[in-house]
């Protein structure tokens, strides 16, 4: 497609592209648990829930979460009535926990409206945790509004259609304008879902299958002969490293000490092993002050590594047997309950590392006592 002109000016061309894409979708659409069967009305609750669960993950990874959510809470009112901790636990492993809190807050807001979602983008955006993309996706898919959601997959497709020479991060308004120009007045939801499916199955980041793509006749990246060279990449910035230490105080019956993180900030409200702050300098000598109780701490071999969006983390793990009481703001978690306790991914890894290491309780040096 010849840059913006063809996306904004030529309605006929747009209509042909949309019609081809919708025909392709009839035969190639993915069957996803949250999608309404062809010819049936979508359930806004399932549309909203799926879009929140799908943020920053794949349909395959989100599917079991979606299933668990709709089984536990079949309606938005059920979800609104659930305890926040249960929602955070069900969300664990899907990334940023502020999203679980917003999901719950949004369910409550909808429940307070009698269970009815607003149907226009502006009102949807006013809901907790609903950004521009999610509002457009719900408006288009659940309410057939002429809206143009742009997620990472759709941005890639549009950058390729126009063979944009600037990276996606620097082309957001061009891409959003192109998406709006393409969104058809009818069946905008089907068109958006068709683009999502093209992004997931055809116009993949690597090795796009241009031969099966309904957008090929309009695609400038395809015509260039090197579609994979688009979108252009931004220069990579090095990811800073942080380090910290966590403490695994374990009882003879298999319980260990844990605490909950603050309700705001990284991994908000998730359960964690007590430990130091995560800093660029690492815990240093001050780490002993962060031990939750006085015990014969020994450092376990190895470390737990985790990559976050803005930094990578290395956690040392200290373990000690401890039979005293839980200090303030700490509580006991049984080993077999780790899956349901609301730990983040990194803390699950730290607990697994600690359990493995603490099994050799007579080895290693005593570091703090
Ligand atoms: Fe992507 Fe190729 Fe389709 Fe262009 S023709 S949108 S590069 S799959």
Textual characterization of the structure:
This protein has helices at residues 3-9, 11-28, 44-54, 59-72, 76-81, 84-91, 97-112, 121-125, 132-143, 152-161, 172-182, 188-201, 220-224, 345-358; strands at 241-250, 255-260, 271-272, 297-299, 304-307, 312-321, 330-334, 366-368. It is an alpha+beta fold and 369 residues long. A hairpin with a 4-residue loop joins strand 5 and strand 6. Helix 2 packs across helix 12 (188-201), helix 9 crosses helix 12 and helix 10 packs across helix 12 (188-201). The longest helix has 18 residues, at 11-28. Mean pLDDT is 91; it is low at 1-8 and 362-369. Bound molecules: iron/sulfur cluster (SF4). Iron/sulfur cluster is lined by residues 157, 160-161, 202-203, 208, 210, 213, 215-216, 219, 221-222, 227.
Give a nutshell description of this structure.
It is built from 14 helices and eight strands. It is of the alpha+beta class. The chain is globular.
CA radius of gyration is 25 Å
Structural class: alpha+beta
Sheet with most strands: 5 strands, mixed
Distance between the termini: 69 Å
Mean pLDDT: 91
Percent range of helical residues: 40-55%
Counting DSSP E segments of at least 2 residues, the number of strands comes to: 8
SS summary, helix count? 14
Shape: globular
Ligands present: iron/sulfur cluster
Descriptors for this entry?
369 residues; binds iron/sulfur cluster; 41% helix; globular; three-stranded antiparallel sheet; single chain; disordered C terminus; disordered N terminus; alpha+beta; five-stranded mixed sheet; 8 strands
